[in-house]
């Protein structure tokens, strides 16, 4: 293995809530899918679960991650209760676009004069169009006197004297070390790198050329940020959720680690207008409203649950545990989660599967409507209309409805022109369309300096996330030459 030096990387973590993210918004009594020991992070073991339970409660996971930041002395890097509202490339400005146009002009000029300078340079690679503007400008200056300009206004005697110097320079041989002959000589004094990522070296030319080649202040004439690797690439804007204070960060590298629970999937009939007050898209809100109703002593009509996944199963169990009738609607014939969950480890979910298959005839406070869809609703009367595949319709009166059909990452703060998914024409989804990344570095394809980890990159379990974080840090160490050879 390659040893990595202990060089802390200065960074800031901007989050909408406390450390632990969405674990603080999940029902605290829900058990994790993974074993409790699989929820741990490096150096701090996860607290042992109860004797009869190998899985951990969500509240314990949330507390563990929040305490982890404190124990590892990472609090100084965290900015909590801040909502990221905008991310954009710093180079996407009118000034930078104008600078890029000037660079293109210099590259075009380089193609016009390449024949003039071939006597003074070692042959370079065919990708000369990728040279930085500094190299192109130097090449232009060094070749300026190689031929007489058609519009030259200098005295004839001065011009003949210059030609004499050029002829003398051409007659002198240029000694080039053997190990330098196959290297590209394109270098960038701004970023301090050559095309082969080595330290910049002077251009190989004869000493006689130095006698009539004068330096030109390129930094004053061209925008230096085009190839300056030390300047930031990204601008991030966040807003404090309590005070409304706006903060902006500029950075060279940006890591997206937003999770996948910020934007719940919605039914078509609820997409065009405001949600009725009795409609919810998360279990925590549903439980809070039910507890308030029960506390006030009001009678509670049946609760509608839409979905066939684990979140819907959690909602069914939560509502029935409060002795409230459940109406469960799902499009398929049975549950969607039975194949990957062994019954001995997840008995509660297999219990819900049995209820869904049975239809509710032998289970009190539960009625299933398999192969049905929600097609209409009335906000004032709190009624909904269900339709089966055969066209049969059912009208029900409800107290609340919870549509739990999955969720997606919310990256609305990213520029709309950035299509980051594997399928560019689709929305980002942690299961069906994650962000397209380099699997070795987790850098987003086509976006230099932008990384993605966690569910955004398709890692939907905690035990996989540290691997993505290590990949990002390893790549940063490599770029900064912090890895021991």
TrEMBL record:
Matches recorded under InterPro entries: FAD/NAD-bd_sf (IPR036188), OSGIN1/2 (IPR029731)
Gene3D superfamilies in UniProt: FAD/NAD(P)-binding domain
Name of the protein in question: FAD/NAD(P)-binding domain-containing protein
């Amino acid at each position: 293995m390659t040893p990595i030096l202990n060089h802390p990387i200065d960074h800031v973590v901007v989050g909408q809530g406390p450390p632990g993210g969405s674990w603080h918004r999940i029902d605290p009594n829900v058990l994790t899918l993974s074993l409790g020991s699989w929820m741990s992070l490096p150096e701090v073991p996860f607290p042992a679960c109860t004797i009869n339970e190998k899985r951990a409660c969500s509240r314990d996971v949330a507390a563990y991650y929040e305490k982890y930041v404190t124990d590892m002395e990472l609090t100084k890097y965290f900015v909590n209760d801040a909502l990221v509202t905008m991310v954009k490339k710093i180079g996407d400005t009118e000034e930078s676009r104008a600078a890029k146009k000037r660079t293109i002009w210099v590259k075009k000029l380089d193609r016009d004069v390449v024949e003039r300078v071939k006597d003074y340079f070692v042959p370079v690679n065919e990708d000369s169009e990728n040279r930085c503007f500094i190299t192109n400008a130097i090449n232009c200056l060094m070749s300026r006197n190689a031929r007489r300009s058609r519009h030259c206004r200098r005295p004839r005697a001065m011009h003949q004297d210059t030609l004499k110097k050029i002829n003398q320079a051409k007659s002198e041989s240029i000694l080039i070390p053997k190990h330098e002959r196959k290297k590209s000589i394109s270098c960038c004094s701004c970023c301090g790198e050559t095309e082969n990522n080595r330290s910049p070296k002077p251009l190989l030319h004869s000493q006689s050329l130095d006698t009539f080649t004068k330096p030109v202040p390129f930094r004053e004439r061209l925008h230096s940020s085009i190839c300056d690797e030390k300047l930031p690439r990204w601008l991030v804007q966040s807003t404090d959720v309590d005070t409304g204070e706006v903060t902006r960060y500029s950075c060279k590298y940006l890591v997206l680690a937003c999770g996948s629970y910020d934007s719940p999937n919605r039914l078509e009939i609820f997409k065009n207008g405001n949600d009725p007050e009795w409609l919810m898209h998360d279990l925590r809100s549903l439980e809070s409203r039910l507890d308030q109703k029960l506390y006030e002593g009001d009678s509670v009509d049946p609760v509608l649950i839409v979905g066939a996944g684990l979140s819907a199963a959690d909602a069914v169990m939560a509502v029935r545990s409060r002795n409230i009738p459940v109406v469960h609607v799902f499009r398929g014939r049975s549950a969607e989660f039975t194949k990957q969950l062994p019954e001995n480890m997840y008995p509660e979910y297999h219990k819900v599967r049995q209820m869904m298959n049975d239809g509710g005839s032998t289970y009190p406070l539960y009625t299933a409507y398999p192969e049905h869809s929600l097609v209409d609703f009335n906000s004032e009367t709190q009624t909904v209309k269900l339709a089966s595949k055969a066209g049969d319709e059912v009208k029900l009166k409800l107290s609340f409805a919870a549509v739990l059909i999955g969720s997606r990452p919310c990256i609305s703060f990213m520029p709309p022109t950035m299509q980051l998914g594997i399928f560019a024409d689709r929305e980002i989804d942690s299961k069906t369309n994650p962000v397209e990344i380099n699997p070795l570095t987790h850098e987003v394809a086509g976006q230099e300096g932008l990384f993605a980890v966690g569910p955004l990159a398709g890692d939907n379990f905690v035990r996989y996330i540290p691997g993505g974080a290590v990949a990002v840090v390893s790549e940063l160490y490599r770029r900064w030459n912090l890895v021991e050879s």
